[in-house]
């Protein structure tokens, strides 16, 4: 709109300037041209006298053409004051005016004449004819041979011509402005549409939206700019995508580093806590033996048993930590093979029969037999051992343990249920964390380290299996699925 408005205003200004110049200066320009034409006729007459062609018919024709072209009336008198050359039939009128001007000047001649130029040969003036009230441009004087001459051309018609020309220019100007406005509007719209499209694209690029592309087919500078913006959009999109990927990876690295630092801190804190008690016991009983607190052989054997037992617990803790570390950092090889998990369970339960009877626990195994699965047999045995060991230690009430193998399509679920107290709901999600203990006093009582279930978690994730726990009526059930 601004482009169209500027161009339309320029058109209007140009037309108005033409009209103003035409109204102001056309008449002056016309009079100057008339003066020049009179001087041209005078010079041509003198030249004809000099070269002797004044009486030739060709010169007469040329003279008539010049006078007709410039609308000039001419009269030339010879030495006897007789008409020698004339371009109008009423030459007597011009002759009368010429004689009056030279010999019989009226009292009002000075008032009606405006002298434009005076030389030794002629006088150039503007005058008003008192009879017809018409203004003329007149030139009178002597030729080089001494003959009188009189040239006259009307200038009154120029004023009417100027008025007509101005009216015509006004009408043409209005039409030109209207037509130009329509043409300029469509042309400016055609020119600015690509610019508007580029503006929309750049505005979307500002908001990191690079889907819109410039579709113009023009081969000018705007088309080249559109192609450059398309290339810039693709480059920015690619670069920002790479930056986002790098930033995401960096953020993950930072989070991983932070997590590792937190794990390291927790690990050191938990390990020091777990080792503090057995080390203190070993140190205390060892110092007692050294100082000979008791000479009773039975007491010395008791001291030694405590030292051995606490050393065993420390060794088991270290071994479990090493196993967990190998699995978590991918240093443990997973050997997936097909084996009968039911046979593995039955063998383990038979080996634990003495322990079950000593705790007065009834254990039943349910499910299809055989039950083949694809997994790492050694890891699955460790997983089951952790579940079964926990079930024995926490079994209460009717003291029942139920082991189930359940086939569900391509998956097989192995679960261990034991009667007893339910696990607090807020603790269920934390059971798989290292060193987490729901009942720390009881865990310490039977020698638990708090990392058994975290080993189960690491092993199941290494085999791409799933795991979980939920409270059941009168008990708790742990399960894995492979």
Q: Specify the oligomeric state.
A: single chain
Measured on Cα atoms, how large is the radius of gyration? 62 Å
Shape: rod-shaped
Beta-strand content: 15-25%
Number of distinct helices: 12
Class from helix and strand fractions: alpha+beta
The description of the largest β-sheet is:
6 strands, antiparallel
Nearest-integer average pLDDT: 81
Spell the H/E element sequence.
HHEEHHEEEEHHHEHHEEHEEHHEE
Head-to-tail CA distance between termini:
72 Å
Total beta strands: 13
Low-confidence stretches: none
Helix content: 55-70%
Strand adjacency order, main sheet:
2-1-6-5-4-3
Would you mind describing this structure in some detail?
Helix content is 59%, strand content 18%. It is built from 12 helices and 13 strands. The strands form 3 sheets. It has a 6-stranded antiparallel β-sheet with strand order 2-1-6-5-4-3, with helices on both faces. It has a 5-stranded mixed β-sheet with strand order 8-10-11-13-12. Strands 7-9 form a two-stranded antiparallel sheet. α1 runs antiparallel to α2 (57-69), α5 (156-206) runs parallel beside α6 and α7 (297-328) packs parallel to α12 (452-462). The model has no long low-confidence stretch (mean pLDDT 81).
